[in-house]
Write a structure and sequence with these properties.
CATH superfamily of the largest domain: Phosphoenolpyruvate-binding domains
Strand content: 15-25%
CATH architecture of the largest domain: Alpha-Beta Barrel
Shape: globular
Radius of gyration: 20 Å
Pfam families: HpcH_HpaI
GO molecular function, one term: magnesium ion binding
Protein name: Citrate lyase subunit beta/citryl-CoA lyase
Keywords: Lyase, Magnesium, Metal-binding
Family: Belongs to the HpcH/HpaI aldolase family.
Helix content: 40-55%
CATH topology of the largest domain: TIM Barrel
Number of helices: 10
Length: about 290
């Protein structure tokens, strides 16, 4: 399974929007059964999502994920009972309190994959890990969440509601300190767990320049992907997570320097000493560029 850089949210109750999203260029679609669907529309939306999954079994160019309802609520099992038959590539778990909920969801998936004849362990999980105040204090718990965990992402909208804030932004448009903290801890929690850190949405889909800045900062900081709420955001995200030619050239030079040094733990390049972290970073850049050897 390839690693998506762009995840596009699509309402799970709209067959038209699902069909349109398929040509968006997004590396992964996230068919939404949570915030985008009213409670009374959930049964019909689950059926639509199931049909879309079954009709799009070839995921070689675009993965299909599903945002289910919170696992500690009364709708998640009904979501899973319908959609696992379609073998989604992964699930987005909202309002997650800790790694224990990922473990519990994994048990549900193991049983349902067996029932539906889906290859065991293939359904991955990404957690929205910062939507409640208590969840911030559990970001270290995902290190023991199990092999299904693919990544952590953070969210500022639900968190600001939960803390009773009137806004999550400063006057200059940047995130207020509370949300910068949530973003930073999510990044560190993901890296501690050995999984991907995925940046949250940019709500204003008309602000292309702002989105490009956020993508650039996300990649610089160590995030490997970003969520989109509109098809117009996808190309900017895909391009922003692709290292430029200068970065790729420098990364290749670092790899070549270590190859020339044999098994040495250090190498020289243009008069600078390099050690193993430089090599690791270079290989990550080449992988992101699709140029890893």
């Amino acid at each position: 399974m390839f690693t998506p850089r762009s995840f596009l949210f699509v309402p799970g109750d709209s067959a038209r929007k699902m069909a349109k999203a398929g040509s968006s260029g997004a590396h992964a679609l996230v068919l939404d059964l949570e915030d985008a669907v009213a409670a009374e529309s959930l049964p019909a939306a689950r059926q639509l999502v199931r049909e879309y999954l079954l009709d799009h079994a070839d995921r070689s160019r675009q993965q299909i994920w599903v945002r289910i309802n919170p696992v500690d609520g009364d709708q998640a099992l009904a979501d899973l009972a319908q959609i696992v038959a379609g073998a989604p590539d992964g699930l987005l778990l909202p309002k997650c309190g800790s790694g224990e909920e990922v473990v519990r969801l994994g048990h549900y998936l193991t049983a349902l994959e067996a029932r539906e004849g889906v290859a065991p362990g293939t359904t991955k999980i990404v957690v929205v890990a910062t939507e409640t105040p208590g969840s911030i204090f559990e970001l270290g718990s995902y290190s023991s969440a199990g092999p299904r965990l693919h990544g952590l992402t953070w969210g500022a909208e639900d968190l600001s509601t939960a803390v009773g804030a009137s806004t999550n932004r400063n006057d200059d448009g940047t995130y207020a300190l509370v949300y910068q903290l949530a973003r930073t801890l999510c990044l560190l929690g993901a890296k501690a767990a050995g999984v991907h850190a995925i940046d949250t949405i940019t709500p204003d889909f008309r602000d292309s320049e702002g989105l490009a800045r956020e993508v650039r900062r996300a990649r610089q900081d160590g995030f490997t992907a970003k969520f989109a709420i509109h098809p117009d955001q996808v190309a900017i995200i895909n391009e922003g997570f692709r290292p430029d030619a200068r970065e790729v050239e420098h990364a290749r030079a670092i790899v070549a320097a270590f190859e020339a040094a044999g098994r040495a733990g250090a190498a020289q390049l243009h008069g600078m000493m390099l050690d193993r972290p430089h090599l690791t970073q270079a290989l990550q850049i080449l992988e992101a560029a699709g140029a890893a050897r």
